[in-house]
## 1
Amino acid sequence: MEVIEMPWNEQNYPPSMKNLKKVVRKKAIEIANALKEKNYDDKRAISIAMEQAEKWYQHRSDLKDDTPFKKNLRRHS
């Protein structure tokens, strides 16, 4: 029997994406779902998707804020 997994969406996404800005999270979800369709495992798909979504956000031409994370959070060094 084949198990059918539902794709991630804006209401149901990996916990590791919770601190991303909404626009970045939306892109990460899109990328992660595409990777899952190509049979990437969840952990790898999430990791790649978050990295690529952050790069995508930082390279947008209309960018005013260069951090893909919510403003009220601080990244630890």
Note: Residues 20-61 form one domain.
## 2
Amino acid sequence: MSLWGKFFVTIDMYMHVGTTIGWLITNNGYVNNRIATNQK
């Protein structure tokens, strides 16, 4: 594997991990908001 290939695979992996973490945080915030709203 060339250096550029390794470079792009690493970026792709980080992007995927970042998207997953971002989705989890957003999803978690949404669920917490729903619970807080329902408790009022």
Note: The CA atoms of residues 22 and 28 lie 10 Å apart.
## 3
Amino acid sequence: MSERERGQMEMKSKVLITGGTGYLGKRLVKASLGQGHETYVLYRPEIGVDIEKVQMLLSFKKQGAHLVQGSFNDRQSLVNAVRLVDVVICAISGVHIRSHQILLQLKLVDAIKEAGNVKVLCPPSLAPTLQKWRTLWNLDGLHLTIKWWLGKRSKKLEFLLHMFLQTALLDTFSEALCQPGHIIPSREHVSILGSGEEKAIYVDEDDIATYTIMAVDDPRTLNKTLYIMPPRNILSQRDVVQIWEKLIGKELRKSSISSEEFLASMREQDYAEQVGLTHYYHVCFEGCLTKI
């Protein structure tokens, strides 16, 4: 590394990423390194049995990342980790069908408070405009209350600046044509949710990571919610379907699902799947992402 490059890195914030081997976390690590930040990746002691994640961590290390062992169940290890950096980006999983680790973030907030040196915390995306996100039964309200509690608790850290990132929908939603439970688009049939005309915002995961890292040293984002809303990425479900039909040169068979039918089908699912389906409901039936 040249003296100029070393000097530029010293001017940039040091970044710690938790959940760095996850779906979005690995992209954040790549973006942070690519933009010249001294990057630290927190990993759990028990990760040694997961060969793919170990290989990913070693790859990060070869690219210049610092690997820091720590656990959300070991408060001191978290405190030691956050003392190394200026910025903490939390990317631990909130994907309900795989795991549910939202409450673990509260332990991270407590560690940051004890360490006292972190300047910026970027927690995972909060629900779009929580006040406007209507509760379905008590199920979704419970989950969103947890997220709201996290934000409220972290805001009590007077020394700490925040950047709440709202990423809208990951690109996987558009890739599956907004079909719950699918990640590959059908070449035969698609279910239209409601009218199919409500707009949503679809953002590539690598772009989300890039914008997040760009924002951590931008004073305009501090104590703000950063919305990633590329104008050309604001599309309805029918828009997405038409793009796919044009690509494959074929018109799909279509059927419609009313909001009543969708809600009735949710009652047959377990808690984790119900929460995920609730997101589809608010986005595709109510258009909440473009009514903020």
Note: Residues 80 and 115 are 8 Å apart (CA to CA).
## 4
Amino acid sequence: MQKQHKGYSSTITDALAHTNAGYKSLSAARIHICTSQDSLVELTPAKPLSLDAFTLCLRFATELKGKREVILFAYRTQYFDELNVWRETDGRLSLYLSGPGAFFEVPELGPLANHVCLTWESLTGRTTMYVNGRSSASKIYQRGHRVRPGGKVILGQDPDNFLGDFQAEQSFVGEIFGVNMWDHVLPSVAIQLLSTGEDFSDANVLDWATVTIIPTGSVVEFQKRSLDLKPTTHALF
């Protein structure tokens, strides 16, 4: 990098209904991306990324340390970094939508798997980062913007042009899985449930359970399995 959907109330009701109905495991392939300038995974979305709002969630585990940028998610059109999520050199998480970024102070992410979600809506510009179910202070970012279709979704590398100009020092090395995206903002209670392993809603842009995964380079896809997470019993509010 050169530096009408389901409403909140019904989504919360659905989420709580699933909680009351019992635990549902989340099955997911784990992708291991090795150190390389050309190791990456392309995901084929279920619909074009023409978005005026979204929720993006993923799980990752990496042992990368030090003053190093790490690309967590990249959506690139021919001329623009339409939607990029980074771990910055100082440990902050960031979102870039075709321009300067929004930055979030988060607790240090250790080498064990973390669940990260990001919500954004164009109408208000409200942008919120979630780490393991806990939310940041929201920021106002790119109000009135729209994410444009016609690009590629990439894990592991940051393309500085359309699927090219990768930089090894910005690449992701480790395991990444559970990448899901919706074309609307999920409420906090839903994201909290997702962080504990609940699988209550099909993602309508990227659904990790069904998405086509196209690996390139040193990438290993592990067999699909349950995350083996336990249901939570504490209050969600």
Note: The mean pLDDT is 81.
